[in-house]
Amino acid sequence: KRAAEESDAADAGDAAGASKLARLVVICGPSGVGKSTLIAKLLEDFPETYGFSVSCTTRAPRAGEVNGVDYNFLPDTQFDGMVDRGDFIEYAQVGGQRYGTSIAGVQEVSSSGKVCLLDLDVQGVQALVQRKDIDPFCVWLAPPSLDDLRARLRARGSEDSAEIERRITRATQEIEVSLTSDIFDKIVLNE
Questions:
Q1: pLDDT one-digit tens code per residue, 130-152
Q2: 58 Cβ contact partners less than 8 Å away, ≥ 6 residues apart
């Protein structure tokens, strides 16, 4: 794969009418590893280079999350309609909720001439890299250890102990994929 700064915008050719998609840099890693923090830092330090495509989700907002900023929070019926129309470049079910990246969101970043940053889970990355019309640069953001990741999740204070352990179990599975698949161009240890 080409590095993000070397890749050309890809002709989407999608049935939904996507004409061109931005150069894409995908940040992936387990919940609590620091994906949002890294993306926020890139957007702050390099505002002329990077833009962010806000993902869609069917889950309810957490305390402090803003619709259209953190996620586009959608009812199931609206999400279903977008799936039916082919409005997503990828979507997946994670933890009982659905998440997706809209073609329109990516095109909005692309039209500004910026590299589009995406925050995806492993399922989303797997779906994205299978598309022939997109050549994303995929970064796996790894925690120093599962104990460090567990401590970060506890420090957030947004999940109970059972949910934290469910996320640790899922993180273990995601780490296995990151080590055994060839879908990531770069692995970064977030200490």
A1: 988 888 999 999 999 999 999 99
A2: 73, 74, 75, 76, 79, 97, 98, 99
